[in-house]
Amino acid sequence: MEITYFGHACFQVTIGDTNLLFDPFISPNELAKEIDIKSLNPDYILISHGHEDHVYDVELIAKQSNATIIANFEITTWFNNKGIEKTHPMNHGGSWQFDFGKVKYVNAIHSSSLPDGSYGGNPGGFVITSDKGNFYYAGDTALTMDMKLIPLFTKLDFAILPIGNNFTMNDDEAIFASDFIACNKIVGMHYDTFGFIEIDHAEVKEKFNKREKELFLLNIGQTQDIK
Ligand code: NI
Ligand code: MN
To answer: Ligand 1 mean position to 131 CA, how many Å?
Structure first.
């Protein structure tokens, strides 16, 4: 599957001819100013939780692309009230078969309020299974034992995990998470965007290498094919 990084926690994953966009926060991100959000045309926008650094560009991109929003019930309702009708509400433990594959909404340990202070439901992550491959997008989360449930049902090809510390787990814990989910190909997210979450790329990559794991730290705008 092809994965393109748009900075912070925002990725597009292409499954066949379907584009899934996760947690778009592009226009306020200084590091992502080369990205033209008007060029984005996803089929689905998946949102892990309500925080501004995960939903900032959702409304604009959903309206220009007519994409379907997949998120917890509280977040989809919030966007319904902004005039976006194409939404698919979910909640923890539930899964749904879409045209591109199956989405399961899984636990994340974090918080979730929307930018106007509205309740944002419980934060989560997504496990996607498809005939092109399987992956886990963790969202913002601490390391949690619940991650051990994922490989009981799904053999992952790669996982997108937060590594930046302060608001989420750090790189050392992401290595444990990689063991918990039985997946050695990890794409890092939620680092470098703000002062609290800056990381030393070489040092972090070396830690993963020592454990015989591969850590992808994509450049913003870069597309990588991960199998
Ligand atoms: Ni957050
Ligand atoms: Mn965040």
So the answer is: 30
- Mean pLDDT per block of 10 residues along the chain (227 residues) reads 98 98 98 97 98 98 98 98 97 98 98 98 98 98 98 98 98 98 98 96 97 98 95
Predicted pLDDT of residue 227: 86
Q: Which ligand is nearest to the CA of 164?
A: 2
C-beta separation of 128 from 101 below 8 A: yes
* Domains of the chain, earliest start first: 2-217 (3.60.15.10)
Distance (angstroms) between ligand 2 centre and the Cα of 81 equals 23
Residue 137 C-alpha to ligand 2 middle, in angstroms? 13
Q: Supply the mean pLDDT for the chain.
A: 98
- Ligand 2 centroid, distance to 143 Cα (angstroms): 15
